[in-house]
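Annotated sample (chain length 208).
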Amino acid sequence: MYNKILILAPHTDDGELGCGGTIAKFVEEGKHITVAAFSTAEDSVPEGFPKNALEGEFKSAMSVLGVPEENLIIYKFKVRHFPAFRQEILEELVKIRSKINPDLVFVPSPNDIHQDHQVITAEGLRTFKKVSILGYELPWNNIVFETKCFVPLERRHIEKKILALECYRTQQHRSYLSSEFIIGLAKTRGTQFENAFAESFEVLRLIL
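Output written by the structure step:
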């Protein structure tokens, strides 16, 4: 039903973390995937790495998942300052809508407390009023999360997600990039409907 899918990632690793297994599955199914990352978070790159490291890591991670570089849209909005750029971000989203015309959009959960994530979700909802929208899970930022939609996954999809996240050499100090966490969360979401693995999403708008 959904063939043109757009992933909105506030920062370069958010799409892989929130729906990396789903991306891998959709690529297998031949769906057209576009991923827009709104910040390469240069201010968050650890010492010893080039400031543009996350951009290269993002491209490598998406290649692992099967998304070609020509399907990536990369912006340079300043990390943690998105509220100051709401209008510019909205205008870029409108351009993406005109170019891609997706029928399914993924955004961070509306219950995500990160200020950059909140802007992408709010402006995404404004832009894509005629499109089904799902909110993805980033548990370290979610006070609550409603598991209303599930994408059943196989182990190979989770393994690709893990390999993609391993491309982020600058971020390996973060506990939520560990393979144990990724596998554990996928097993938990799968168990909720008696499947081996899954990713879960909030239903923000569903058009059938």
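Annotation: The mean pLDDT is 97.
Annotation: The CA atoms of residues 16 and 70 lie 17 Å apart.
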